[in-house]
Amino acid sequence: MEVLKTKDLVVGYKDKAILPPINVSLNEGSMIALIGPNGAGKSTLFKTLTAHIKAVSGEIELFGKELHSYSAKEKATLIGLVLTERPDDMFLKVYDVVASGRCPYTNFFGKMRDEDETIIKDSLEIVGIEHLTERYFSALSDGERQKVMIAKTIAQNTPIIFMDEPTAFIDYPSKIELFNLMKRLCKEQNKTIVFSSHDLELLLRYTDDIWIVSKGKELISSSKDNLLDKGIIREYFNLKEDIKI
Amino acid sequence: MSRNKLNISIIIGLIILGTILFILNLFVGSVSIPFRDLFDVIFGDDGNSTVRTIVYEYRLPQAITALLAGAALSVAGLLMQTLFRNPLADPSMLGVSSGSSLGVAVTILLTGILGKSALSSFGLWSNIGVSLAAFLGATLVLMLILGFSSRVRNMTTLIIIGLMISYLSGSITDILKFFSMKEDIHAFVIWGMGTFSAVGPSKILFFSVCIIIGLFVSLFLCKNLNILLLGDLYAENLGLNVKRNNIIIILVSGYLTAIVTAYCGPIAFLGLAIPHLTRFIFRSSDHRTLIPATMLIGMIVSMFCNLVARMPGFEGNLPINAVTAFIGAPIVIWVIFKKNN
After folding, report:
1. What percent of chain B has pLDDT over 90?
2. Which is more confidently placed, B214 or A217?
3. Cα–Cα distance, B98 to B101 (Å, whole number)
4. Pick among A84, A86, A103, A157 to test the B interface (most B CBs inside 10 A)
5. Closest alpha carbon to A155 in A112, A105, A98, A195
6. How far off is chain A from B317, nearest CA to CA, in Å?
7. What is the tens place of the pLDDT at every residue in A94-151?
């Protein structure tokens, strides 16, 4: 099933396009990597697809409806977000962060019902951090914080999740753990995950499709095998030999 | 003991402490009142009429002013710290108090210059006028700061901008003073030193109602403030209209600061120190705990400061700002020290 689709989408800031029109679509349960050099427009594309900034022109369809026709609350139940920015409040607990994922569903005062508590508990378990529940967020390692933010997004219960460089700043074993987790979410929970990353070697092992952006060039969207066969990735990264997976 | 139970015992302890301080505020002062007389005055018996006057005309309004002003400034500080996600944000640091001061200066001094008689002699309307001017000054500065904050990511820069705005409004105030009449300047200088005694029995009701409304409204901001702790983008992704929410927080904190500043003068350090103290006591970042707890601790510290300022043996009152800074500054140093360890 198609969850998101763009039609001649032009992204940029203040009417200034930074990439040629984009035509891509996302299928339910797929895991897509967005790669490209810094400054090529990855963040702008993410912010546009998650409705934080307006597109210069073109359309974004979310479940067959124009993205901006959804209310803020509806959007909050459809698209989840994991960023590189981290909350830095000293006394913010892991539980508080994950619980915040429930706020599109709770009342005016943010009162948690039993149902919300169950979902929070499940989210912590899925990510494997239930032992951190009562810990302060600021005291965790980068890898653990990343998991907490993912647990928040699971509690938010959105079919689509966008992750901005989820594997940046974390050590190699944690990166593998994180990729396994993302893959598991796509397979078992049917989530659609789009993430940006520079960990080419790892993401080639895990993803289904890859989007490539480069400054001013057209976005390439293709299956990983296709990309490898045609040598696009080699060309793109100026490698002398093909990558063997 | 679980955190919840611990918090409840802390709150009960604080309420007892607050009650004791409130009674001490009625009891202690330049004229010492025997406990029996105070008891008689409070609990029906007519008692001594001089004692009655002292308690009802002076000490009770002053204690209530201290209590409400402390709560209001502390909550305003908490709102600003969460809004700017900056531990140094507070009404005086960001230039909000001086914005209110400028508003007050304009009404007191400019009407004096233009109309040959200061607005300060016009009763209730001048109360509303001065409060409104203080509110306009405060919100104007907050809007300016918020405008800058969307462009400057660095929080230190923002604090420096706040300080510069303080100097700017201070300089405009000084220029106004230069052209004003002596009596008006005198009134303004006295006001500027900060005091909890200026509200008095005639204005205490109006003052209390204004503050209680502001505090009550702040209780409704808990959920949004909690989401805001995650950062603007996360908050927006969770369905919060960040821009509208920021404006509401600014209006509420500006309003609370403005009312207190209009009646008590610019009071420093309570807004900065109390939210930190509260976070450390309750070890929480949940505003459903923090807002009521900040009010409570703000009341207590403020009443304590008022008591210190009025210790028997002093001729008259110490300027309240001297006391709040003396108590507040070490708290802030302690918090920053703890945070870096």
Report:
1. 34
2. B214
3. 5
4. A103
5. A98
6. 38
7. 999 999 999 999 988 888 899 999 999 999 999 999 999 999 999 999 889 999 999 9
For residues B234 and B231, give the distance between their C-alpha atoms in angstroms, rounded to a whole number: 6
Rounded Cα distance, B39 and B20, in Å? 14
What is the structure's pLDDT at A240?
66
Phi, psi of B181, deg, nearest 5: -80, 155
Shortest CA gap B127–chain A (Å):
34
| Whether B234 and A108 lie within 8 Å, measured CB to CB | no
**Helix (H, G, I), strand (E, B), or coil: what is residue B181?**
coil
Amino acid at B337: F
User: What is the number of CB-based contacts under 8 A between chain A and chain B?
Assistant: 74
- In this structure, are residues A12 and A40 in contact, taking their beta carbons and an 8 Å threshold? no
A9, B235, B252, B259 from B69: Cα distances, Å: 53, 31, 14, 9
Residue B60 phi, psi dihedral angles, 5° rounding: -65, -50
Rounded to two decimals, the ipTM of the complex is: 0.91
Cα distance between residue A80 and residue A155, in whole Å: 10
Length of chain B: 341
**Helix, strand, coil share of chain A (percent; to 5):** 40, 20, 40
Closest-CA distance of chain B to residue A43, Å: 12
| Chain B neighbors of A108, CB-CB under 8 A | 220, 223
Of the candidates B86, B158, B127, the one whose C-alpha atom is nearest the C-alpha of residue B258 is B127
Say if CB B224 and CB B51 are below 8 A apart: no
Amino acid at B268: A
DSSP A194: E
